[in-house]
């Protein structure tokens, strides 16, 4: 068998067993387009092999003819000098033939070795494919069994309903109404740890507040606490600027999420190729800006004379940012590198907000907010996400800073982990879990918040959040309780004492508190929200077209705009174009860096400089973070955007 046919035999089975390659600089695994390119490449290689075979035949043919001609010349009667030259040419031709034969033999040996290993590779690839299919089937079967067991448990006749308690753990004694019943399709997540480590008991009469060995504090709500009254009841007057109150209804496309994500177990979410069908028509920058929906809590906190009282409002604000996520299981658009989003609402909200995508791998966004009421907020959030089979974990990394100009109080905290459950089977639902520690770096006051996970067996309120606000000496001053999707309350502690040890030897702290005050309550969703991606009133306005924004603003992103209008097929095509444009820009940056950089490490680094933010060392956390360096609002006033990259 010739060399060319044997090589062709090796190429064909390898083309059938190719696995996706995720070593590229983009966010995608092997797509149908990539596979088409792979087959084209293999076809080109086969054509080149045909050319090589033709050349090989010609070399053999002309080489033999040359050898015969030289032999015939040697037999002629020619002068001695010419005879010597012919002899030398003949020797060189002989050496060429010997070398060519050696090269052909070496190629033959290489092909035999490659054929041997090729069979091993084919068997290994086939085995991996079979194991992968088996794993997918096993995971899907386990998920269905798990779902069936959960439903059986919830419908068990012996399962008792929540009894009325004389006290609650980590919450207040105020009874919950019947209007918070769960959807019958809601799935529950088994709790990974115990609930809160304290017990709260509401006390009314002054004589009931005495206990031996207890720590007694202020026994009444004082005039300084009045700022906490009705903080959630902010009257909504007519807006100064009329904004839209609806967007086109979401099209009814059926698409199986598991069919796309089953090949991505354990991978970073930003590297999973996802059509816009699983997105919502907002970018991650706009979702980050949604944290400001309950900005009035911070406006109210400006007037607090007590730092621990101010901490209560800051804690309520930190929890309120999760209220829009309870039904929002769709994925926001991953911003293009250099993409920005502004929220210029000085007139109606009293603030200006700017976000910029400062890194693509890993995805990272910088955010800065200025309020005319006397506070500033900034953060750099890097999204780390992993698909674990049945659930998806989303971990925002980075510190959030909040500073009040008048008092100089500087608060720092980090976000909790979000988890999307039932990826394979059942109704998708989202949960927030983990602990949040808020620290006032000026006064050293602290707040410890705990987001409790769903549990099959817990009698606690679903989506519960509880916490304690302590002063600089570590003395507990307020207890916080509520749910991250509905409301938060605070109660002033008048006395604390240890409880009796439980059967397992653990001891909890008992806080006697005054009746709770409502800090924050979620706004009702707009009418028809279920057909508009469950957007809040603020979210509905974020992608509304505005004049004068930067050319990199998320409102101008074409695939996102097409999706909002319901043109999902066109949006998917446009999304692929934008991603390819981004990959080409990255290749140009790497090539420019390779020409100008010295070390090998520098040559492989994607050097991108944000336009409106710059890297600095955070003095409070010691981490490098992107801080707003100014210039955006001045550029907007001049309408001078010449420095902005062309990303769309």
Tell me about this structure:
The chain is an alpha+beta fold and 648 residues long. The chain contains 12 helices and 22 strands. The strands form 3 sheets. A 6-stranded antiparallel beta barrel has the order 9-10-13-14-12-11. Strand 21 (613-617) and strand 22 form a beta hairpin. Helix 1 packs parallel to helix 3 (80-154). The longest helix is centred in the N-terminal third of the chain and has 75 residues, at 80-154. The two termini are 54 Å apart. Residues 3-31, 160-169, 171-194 and 207-218 have low confidence and may be disordered.
Overall pLDDT confidence: 78
Total DSSP helices: 12
The geometry reads as elongated
Round the Cα radius of gyration to an integer and report it: 34 Å
Tell me about the biggest sheet? Answer: 6 strands, antiparallel, barrel
Q: Report strand %.
A: 15-25%
Q: What class would the helix/strand composition place it in? A: alpha+beta
What is the distance, rounded to the nearest whole angstrom, between the alpha carbons of the first and last residues? 54 Å
In helices, the fraction of residues equals: 25-40%
Which strands sit side by side, in order, in the main sheet?
9-10-13-14-12-11
Instruction: List segments where confidence is low: pLDDT < 50 over at least 5 consecutive residues.
Output: 3-31, 160-169, 171-194, 207-218
Number of strands: 22
Coiled coil: 125-152
Organism: Equus przewalskii
Region (Disordered): 153-184, 559-583
Biased composition (Polar residues): 161-171
């Amino acid at each position: 068998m010739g060399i060319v046919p044997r090589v062709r035999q090796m190429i064909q089975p390898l083309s059938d067993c190719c696995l996706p390659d995720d070593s590229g600089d983009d966010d995608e695994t092997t797509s149908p387009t990539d596979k088409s390119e792979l087959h084209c490449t293999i076809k080109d290689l086969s054509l080149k092999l045909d050319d090589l075979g033709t050349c090989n035949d010609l070399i053999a043919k002309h080489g033999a003819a040359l050898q015969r001609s030289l032999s015939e010349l040697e037999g002629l009667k020619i002068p001695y000098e010419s005879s010597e030259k012919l002899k030398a040419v003949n020797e060189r031709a002989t050496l060429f033939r010997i070398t060519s034969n050696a090269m052909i033999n070496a190629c033959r040996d290489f092909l035999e070795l490659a054929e041997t290993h090729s069979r091993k590779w084919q068997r290994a690839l086939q085995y991996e494919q079979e194991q992968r299919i088996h794993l997918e089937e096993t995971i899907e079967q386990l998920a269905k069994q798990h779902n069936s067991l959960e439903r059986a448990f919830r419908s068990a006749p012996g399962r008792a309903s929540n009894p009325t308690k004389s006290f609650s753990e980590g919450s207040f004694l105020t009874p919950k109404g019947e209007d918070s019943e769960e959807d019958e399709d809601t799935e529950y997540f088994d709790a990974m740890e115990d609930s809160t480590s304290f017990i709260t008991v509401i006390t009314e009469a002054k004589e009931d507040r005495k206990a031996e060995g207890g720590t007694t504090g202020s026994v009444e709500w004082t005039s300084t606490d009045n700022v906490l009254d009705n903080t959630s009841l902010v009257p909504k007057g007519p807006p100064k600027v009329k904004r839209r109150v609806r967007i086109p209804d979401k099209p009814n496309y059926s698409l199986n999420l598991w069919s796309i994500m089953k090949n991505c177990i354990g991978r970073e979410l930003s590297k999973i190729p996802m059509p816009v069908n699983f997105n919502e028509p907002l970018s991650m920058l706009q979702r980050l800006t949604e944290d400001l929906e309950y900005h009035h809590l911070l406006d109210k906190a400006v007037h607090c004379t007590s730092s621990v009282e101010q901490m209560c409002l800051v804690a309520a604000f930190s929890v309120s940012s999760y209220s829009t996520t309870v039904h929002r299981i769709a994925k926001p658009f991953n911003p293009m590198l250099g993409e920005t989003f502004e929220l210029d609402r000085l007139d109606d909200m009293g603030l200006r907000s700017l976000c910029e995508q400062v890194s693509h791998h890993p995805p990272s966004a910088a955010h800065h907010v200025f309020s005319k009421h006397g506070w500033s907020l900034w953060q750099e959030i890097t999204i780390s996400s992993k698909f674990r089979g049945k659930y998806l974990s989303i971990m925002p990394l980075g510190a959030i800073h909040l500073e009040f100009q008048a008092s100089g109080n500087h608060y720092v905290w980090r976000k909790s982990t979000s988890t999307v459950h039932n990826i394979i089977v059942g109704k998708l639902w989202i949960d927030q879990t983990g602990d949040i520690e808020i620290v006032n770096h000026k006064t050293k006051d602290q707040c410890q918040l705990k987001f409790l996970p769903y549990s099959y067996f817990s009698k606690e309120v679903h989506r519960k959040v509880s916490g304690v606000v302590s002063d600089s000496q570590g003395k507990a001053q307020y207890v916080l309780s509520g749910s991250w999707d509905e409301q938060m309350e605070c109660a002033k502690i008048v006395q604390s004492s240890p409880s009796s040890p439980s059967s397992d030897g653990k001891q909890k702290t008992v806080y006697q508190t005054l009746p709770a005050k409502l800090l924050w309550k979620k706004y009702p969703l707009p009418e028809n929200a279920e057909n508009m991606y469950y957007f809040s009133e603020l979210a509905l306005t974020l992608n509304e077209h505005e004049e004068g924004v930067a050319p990199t603003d998320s409102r101008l992103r074409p695939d996102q705009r097409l999706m909002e209008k319901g043109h999902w097929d066109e949006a998917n095509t446009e999304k692929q174009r934008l991603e390819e444009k981004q990959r080409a820009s990255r290749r140009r940056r790497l090539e420019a860096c390779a020409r100008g950089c010295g070390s090998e490490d520098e040559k492989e680094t994607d050097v991108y400089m944000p336009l409106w933010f710059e890297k600095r060392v955070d003095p409070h956390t010691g981490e490098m973070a992107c801080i707003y360096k100014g210039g955006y609002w001045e550029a907007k006033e001049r309408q001078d955007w010449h420095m902005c990259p062309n990303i769309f």
